[in-house]
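Appendix B. Chain record.
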Amino acid sequence: MELMDATRSRRSIRIYIPRTVEDEDLLAILEAVRIALSAANMQD
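Structure tokens predicted for this chain:
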């Protein structure tokens, strides 16, 4: 999926499935957040 396709087809999720997130998946998400760019590169 291209970025623009993903942006156009995005949706808000307000009801969540009650299931646990595996530790490996959570760590991958946190790593992606940690290395993501921030506004004015103000990562602390």
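Further analysis of this model is presented in Appendix C.
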